[in-house]
Fold this sequence. Notes:
Layout: E1 4-8, H1 13-29, E2 32-40, H2 41-46, H3 79-97, E3 104-111, H4 113-124, E4 128-133, H5 138-144, H6 147-154, E5 159-163
Parallel strand pairs: 1-2, 1-4, 2-3, 4-5
Helix pairs in contact: 4-6
Amino acid sequence: MYETILYPTDGSEGAEAALAHARDHAQRYGAEVHVLFVADSSFERSGMVGEEHAGTPSGMRGEEHDHEPSGLIAEDTDPLGTIEAGGEAIVERVAAAFGDDVPVTTAVRRATPYNGIIEYAEGVGADLIVMGTHGRRGVDHFLIGSVAEKVVRTSEVPVLTVRLDDA
Length: 167
């Protein structure tokens, strides 16, 4: 029934809650698992990971200084690259948790998380996406949103969601 299972993870407790389900389905159906970490590229565009903004003067330092870097960010840094490196460590740790009896492929992508998950699932021909949710409710859910909810609403691939137990 399932040949290729996608298990997206951010290394959080919510994602870890779904790990046993992904492993169980993979073992039961002899499926290959793809472990995916998506570095949120929307932070890069917003400057929230420390990107210098070239081109549009801020007006905060005066026109004579707008062409100079602020010095707050080292010129050779790639903050999203640092996030991707952390993602590499997460997918390798998770891959090891599947054991030797489940074939596992790992990947790290730079995208908006739900888009990255959907595009990766389509690209590898996934039959099932198994992912955790954070179990947020009320204002937190409204303000923060839910990657899992967006994946469920937009995916053509079946999605199994596992909610982090409140206990």
